[in-house]
Amino acid sequence: MGDMGDLYRDWGAGKKAMRDKHGVDCPQCRAKQPKRTPTILLPGQRCKVDGCRDPRPRVSDEEFEAVTGWSVTRSTKRRADRGRRNSAD
Ligand SMILES: [Zn+2]
Fold first, then answer.
1. Which CA distances in Å does 24 have to 34, 48, 52, 88?
2. Whole-number Å distance between alpha carbons of 30 and 36
3. What's the CA angle centered on 71, arms 69 and 13, to 5 degrees?
4. Distance 68 CA to ligand 1 centre (A)
5. Are 41 and 59 in contact (CB under 8 A)?
6. Who surrounds ion ligand 1 at CB < 5 A?
7. Residue 71 CA, ligand 1 centroid: distance in Å
8. Three-state secondary structure along 21-46?
9. What share of the chain is helix, strand, coil (3-state, %, to 5)?
């Protein structure tokens, strides 16, 4: 269970790092609901409140890994390998 806690804590820290570096206040939230705290949008993310989509291109895997410290490419590859093995069975 300790491992799970660490995982979630790292996940939260990674998300915060992404918001700090790449997050911007949703322009629609600011325009339409200035009293509300605006949604923080990451590149390519859509605001759940008003549907406004951030126009920036998505962060590359390399940049994402650099900011969060997560190895996205490695875990994606692992998933793909597992998928191939399962389909071969
Ligand atoms: Zn918004």
1. 15, 14, 12, 44
2. 8
3. 35
4. 24
5. no
6. 26, 28-29, 39, 47, 49-50, 52
7. 29
8. HHCEECHHHHHHCCCCCCCEECCCCE
9. 60, 5, 35
pLDDT digits 0-9 by tens, 15-70? 999 999 999 999 999 999 999 999 999 999 999 999 999 999 999 999 999 999 88
How many domains is the chain built from? 1
Match 């008003």 to its residue by tokens: 50
Single-letter amino acid code for the residue at 13: A
Domain that holds residue 80: 2-88
User: Token match 């998300």: residue?
Assistant: 15
Q: Spell out where 1-89 has E strands.
A: 24-25, 40-41
